[in-house]
Inverse folding.
């Protein structure tokens, strides 16, 4: 399996604490399912300039409790469609955390990194090693790497491709999640 | 070492003798429910699985509640797709107009003690009122549940919350919820379970318990559980013998225990931004409002309408205020019609809309214009939730109704007789 898929490099856009899913994708856009539409309104609840700032491959960095509030998967999906590849925060709201991995975005908890980060610092992250490098500051940080099955989600692009892989590997016709 | 209720439900369901916080386990699902906002993606994702079947259609409910009846052309298309999917796979649809998923599930007696329930709504936590482990998940995860009937969970640590005493004059279950939220803040209980107990629970109805339990999600909890007692069993038309009642072990280990004395509680208001922004009503009294709202799974039960009617009887809604009521189920409307509560509300100038999430999420019902202020019994008050630039204060039905009369945030005890400091 190609481990490059667990290695990311990009600029980090930094936000504060308690960024809710209402900030990330206001509920009035909830009936949107077109990727471009979701991307356009992404973060519009907190930063009207976000969609013009973000570039493919960027990281989203946040303080405590990012993804607070509604279960809407459209929120991380909008971030993904806008180009965000990794989300790093001091802490995550639980459904948002799961949603990120389920759609193939790694959610990384690393408080020290966030505290010392400035907006738009260049960073690299090695998910498998559990390490982040802030290039701009020339400093390394460690985090607890996610369990293996969640790394698999990221390698394969999310929970659905993971389930497909599992069912292809098994002889049975039922699908099972292996953890 | 003993187990908490949440740990015990997880150990029973997985057949493991013991589970411990932080352990990752795979659990079978007893009930899964999916609402119209999150169903489209769940269906889309499910369709990507080769040869997938719904693991057990009997255990799956689709509920059309967020846009009900369909509020936009696009919502109508989503609804049609949900009905078609359900027909194809043999799942049940609870169609528009019946009400908000959690409250409808509760009325139908579907959440039961000891069960594991997942919903595509964060406030699924609320049905833990029925002594079950209930939690919210996203759409892709729901697609996986539909295909497999299972999910992974990290066993949460449990916090014990003890509520003692009783409500004083003019204070409601909503005020209790705002008190608890203020104490813990928006993330202190992230990933944790709450186990409630205490004499206060004996003094309130199952619906009032649910109004409190639903709001717990705003502190980041995975699940929240109320005790199973005679009151709950009679709501379920059941007996202890017929249910899988789970109680905590004497030596269960809790991350912490927090006790509240409800008797000294006064009306509370959460200021705009977060439901955890609770404050004494005194500090915001006099704030001018444009709209009063009764709505949501946490704030539009029959008791909420009844409390509002108690205030509005013989009074009029202030001409500068619109009073928007979105009951959380059709049964609430039925009862309010039977008892005359609906008549009192409408006669006083309130408008009653069809049962749905409606105004709670700004779903094309009861929205705010930029700069407008609303006081509401709904669940959340994040910036822009009812419309960009609108500001939302959360409070009890008493406070919302009193404010509708005066046009500014008002202590309801002024209207309830008996004086404020009796
Ligand atoms: S009423 Fe509000 S909080 Fe409840 S399920 Fe609907 S949108 Fe969510």
């Amino acid at each position: 399996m190609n481990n490059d898929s667990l290695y990311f490099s990009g600029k980090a856009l930094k936000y504060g604490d308690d960024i809710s899913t209402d900030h990330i994708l206001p509920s009035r856009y909830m009936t949107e399912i077109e990727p471009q539409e979701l991307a356009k309104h992404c973060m519009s609840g907190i930063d009207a300039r976000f969609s013009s700032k973000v570039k493919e491959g960027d990281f989203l960095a946040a303080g405590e409790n990012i993804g607070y509030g509604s279960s809407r998967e459209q929120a991380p999906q909008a971030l993904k469609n806008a180009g965000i590849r990794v989300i790093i925060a001091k802490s995550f709201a639980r459904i948002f955390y799961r949603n990120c991995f389920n759609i193939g975005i790694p959610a990384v908890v690393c408080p020290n990194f966030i505290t010392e980060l400035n907006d738009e610092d260049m960073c690299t992250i090695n998910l498998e090693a559990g390490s982040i490098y802030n290039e701009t500051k020339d400093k390394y940080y460690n985090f607890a790497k996610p369990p293996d099955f969640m790394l698999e989600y990221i390698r394969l692009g999310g929970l659905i491709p993971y389930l497909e892989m599992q069912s292809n590997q098994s002889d049975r016709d039922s699908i099972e999640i292996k953890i | 070492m003993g187990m908490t209720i949440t740990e015990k439900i997880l150990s029973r369901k997985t057949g493991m003798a013991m589970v411990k916080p932080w352990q990752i386990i795979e659990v079978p699902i007893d009930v899964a429910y999916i609402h119209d906002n999150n169903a489209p993606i769940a269906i889309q994702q499910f369709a990507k699985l080769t040869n997938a079947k719904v693991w057990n259609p009997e255990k799956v409910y689709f509920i059309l509640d967020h846009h009900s009846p369909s509020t936009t052309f696009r919502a109508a298309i989503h609804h049609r797709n949900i009905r078609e999917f359900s027909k194809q796979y043999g799942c049940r649809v609870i169609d528009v107009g019946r009400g908000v998923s959690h409250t409808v599930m509760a009325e139908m007696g579907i959440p039961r003690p000891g069960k594991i329930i997942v919903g595509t709504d964060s406030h699924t936590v609320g049905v833990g009122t029925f002594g079950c482990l209930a939690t919210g998940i996203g759409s892709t995860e729901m697609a996986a549940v539909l295909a497999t009937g299972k999910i992974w969970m990290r066993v949460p640590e449990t916090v014990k919350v003890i509520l003692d005493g009783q409500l004083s004059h003019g204070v409601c279950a909503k005020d209790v919820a705002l008190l608890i939220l203020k104490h813990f803040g928006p993330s202190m209980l992230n990933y944790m379970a709450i186990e409630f107990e205490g004499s206060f629970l004996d003094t309130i109805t199952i619906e009032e318990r649910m109004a409190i339990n639903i709001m717990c999600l705003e502190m980041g909890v995975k699940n929240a559980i109320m005790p199973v007692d005679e009151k709950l069993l009679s709501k379920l038309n059941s007996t202890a013998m017929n249910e899988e009642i789970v109680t905590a072990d004497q030596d269960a280990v809790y991350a912490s225990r927090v006790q509240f004395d409800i008797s000294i509680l006064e009306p509370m208001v959460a200021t705009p931004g977060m439901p955890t922004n609770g404050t004494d009503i005194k500090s915001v009294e006099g704030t001018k409002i444009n709209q009063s709202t009764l709505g949501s799974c946490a704030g539009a039960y029959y008791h909420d309408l009844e409390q509002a009617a108690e205030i509005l009887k013989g009074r009029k809604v202030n001409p500068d205020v619109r009073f928007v009521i979105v009951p959380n189920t059709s049964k609430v409307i039925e009862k309010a019609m039977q008892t005359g509560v609906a008549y009192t509300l409408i006669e006083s100038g309130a408008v009653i809309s069809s049962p749905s999430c409606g105004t709670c999420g700004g779903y094309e019902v009861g929205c705010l214009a930029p700069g407008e202020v609303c006081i509401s019994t709904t669940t959340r008050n994040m910036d822009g939730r009812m419309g960009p630039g609108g500001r939302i204060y959360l409070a009890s039905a008493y406070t919302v109704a009193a404010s509708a009369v005066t046009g500014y945030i008002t202590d309801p005890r002024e209207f309830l007789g008996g004086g404020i400091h009796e």
Residues 113 and 162 of chain A are 30 Å apart (CA to CA). Chain A is about 35% helix and 20% strand.
